[in-house]
Amino acid sequence: MSTRIKTPNLDEIWLRWKQKSARTDKKKMEKQFGTKGAVFSLDAISAAEYVKDTMKEAAIYFAVKRSLGPAPTGKEENLVTVPRVGREQYYSFKGAGKIDKENWKGDEKVPHFESIKAVPCKNCRGKGYIEDKCKTCKGTGKIEETFTVLVGEEQNKEKKPFSYSCAVCYGTGNRSEPCKECGGHKNMYKYDILPVPFKTVVTGIPILHSSAQTKYEKEIGDDLHKMIEDVEGIKFSEFKELESKAEASLGYMNKNISKTIGAARNDYKKHEKDKEAQITSQIYLFPMIQMMATTKRGMKFEIYSLGSGNKFMVFSNF
User: Fold this and answer.
1) Which tens digit of pLDDT belongs to each residue from 209-226?
2) Which of 1, 36, 123, 186 has the maximal Cβ count within 10 Å?
3) What's the whole-model pTM score?
4) Buried b / exposed e across 251-273, counting CB within 10 Å, b at 16+?
């Protein structure tokens, strides 16, 4: 047999919202609802005057504990030239302790600054240059030429050899060219791409699905998570039971609620399969009242209630 839960009436929700809003920002309440020259009173702000529409909706909640642990182990190595080693973005965790994964922005494996090491270039054996025979003098260190010389009174032409040091290799016969592999820097540079040293953190995460289709679903879920013991809902051990008893438990049903139950069920199954997650609560079904209101000054806002007439919470974007 299904347990029927009674929703709070609109005046109870409105009163709870007024009291909460006055505690949070009384000046704003006076500005939006007060009358110039009159003493401001919460009693003068009635739901009948300012609530323009209400909707009966539903919300489904369950809690998940997630372990955020270290990134996968292992490392990658990169070997690059001097110009390229300076273009990489490096990270250092020396003395920084473990990193909170939830606050980390970026990849789980990153280049570590302390891992940079010089590696002698294999192509030039760490010399920075390659030696070879001078092509100009063919390795002799000399340039050989033949001069035509006029000899004696008759000025007979004779060919005579003449040599001089090669200017290209400075007479050594060898020529040094910058190594094309290392660019003349003698070394290549190696660095490691290693996991970020995350600390293992266990966090509680509220999962809320509401048929109200509100953009404030996360904020409502966070508030509900903090005060779950003070909000009355109907508890289920499995979604099959919730689906069969939802309408009888709420006393109403609509297409959005049916879709929300389906979406919540799929999300629940996804977390069941997640190895890093553990579902830590039963499944809660809450009646949800959505109130659309407008202040005396024309400001539009919404109020949401979750829970029964005995124990409920309110949330508003006022």
Assistant:
1) 999 989 999 999 999 999
2) 186
3) 0.60
4) eeeeeebeebbeebbebbeebee
